[in-house]
Amino acid sequence: MSAAPAADVAGRIAGTVRADIRELAAYPVAHADGCIKLDAMECPYELPESVRDDIARTVRDTALNRYPAADLSALQAAIKTAFGVPAAADVLFGNGSDELIHIVVQACCAPGDVVMSPWPSFVYFDMAARFDHARFVGVPLTADLTLDLPAMLAAMREHQPKVVFLAVPNNPTGGLWSDEDVAAIVDAAPGLVVLDEAYQPFAEHTWMPRVLDAPNVVVMRTVSKIGLAGLRFGYLAGHPDWIVELNKLRPPYNLDVLTQATLMTVLRHKAVLDEQAARLRADREPLAAALAALPGVRVFPSAGNFVLARFSGKLDGNAVHLALKTRKILIRNFSNAHPLLANCLRISVGAPAENAALLAALQEILSA
Ligand SMILES: *Cc1c(COP(=O)(O)O)cnc(C)c1O
């Protein structure tokens, strides 16, 4: 046997893989070995030794030869208590909220149906919609990167979206849409509104107590931004009847036993997660202020564990991003992502020493 000629493989792919998929690039994940990593809103703090010992013990006693149990009620109860989900709501678990986004789109959208979000926002809303044969409509934010409510209402009237995703606070801009604006969108939406509260612990603001008030709202959360990005766990809370429908799309056994065991253990130490989030909240404003004091830098208000900054001095966003990368500091470049984000870079709030290293590097780069 000899391997098939590359041209034959290419020909078969061209005739088989969807044209829109062939044109896409995979979701960018930077190589980070030896770098200061301020590009992905991870928590910079590792769990304390005592919690890690506790995890090691539970994981050791977890049977790996069996599929995960069908009954998730213990974890559901623990999650509801830990994160303030109303008793009368149910929760659906996903392998990260990325999986939950797919589940929602697949459950609600026939091919060509519209998924909508203010834009720019979380890129995976757009990607998941396309993968699942829906049509994504992004409604531009204002030039100040705030929600354009009249534009949103008009776009919903025109496109009748089956699903509206609202990231509150929004990623990558950091803005927190007002309750009045969110309520107006929920009222006017013909289908489901998913409130993506990935950054809720940093905003200290939530729709969760109201999740059952409207017939068309679910609240989605993740543990990725509060210290557990490596676990891959997200949850979606809503009326039990919504959860019954969405649960039909959940891949069987999507939540592995190690994740379940680890979560049950970590939730007994929830205060540790809360304390880490509080530290990041406290460090956000000093970082934003120091960035805003640099020449030619505009910082947008953020309710997340990150800030978006526009660089319009001698160096443009691409040049600043590259100069930081050369110094092994990773942040996320949105300069070329959308016209509203021209020369914008997104910086996660890191540990104090990381923030200081970033600021020192920027001082040097911008004064060179
Ligand atoms: C990071 C992020 C998520 C990602 O969640 P995972 O649980 O890690 O898949 C979801 N929504 C928004 C807006 C995010 O920024």
Automatic annotation (TrEMBL):
Superkingdom in the source lineage: Bacteria
EC supergroup of this enzyme: transferase
Catalysed reaction equations from the record: L-histidinol phosphate + 2-oxoglutarate = 3-(imidazol-4-yl)-2-oxopropyl phosphate + L-glutamate
Pathway the protein acts in: Amino-acid biosynthesis; L-histidine biosynthesis; L-histidine from 5-phospho-alpha-D-ribose 1-diphosphate: step 7/9
One GO molecular-function entry: histidinol-phosphate transaminase activity
Domain Aminotransferase class I/classII large: residue ranges: 35-361
Keywords recorded for this protein, A-Z: Amino-acid biosynthesis, Aminotransferase, Histidine biosynthesis, Pyridoxal phosphate, Transferase
Family membership noted in the UniProt record: Belongs to the class-II pyridoxal-phosphate-dependent aminotransferase family. Histidinol-phosphate aminotransferase subfamily.
The protein, known as: Histidinol-phosphate aminotransferase
Organism: Achromobacter piechaudii
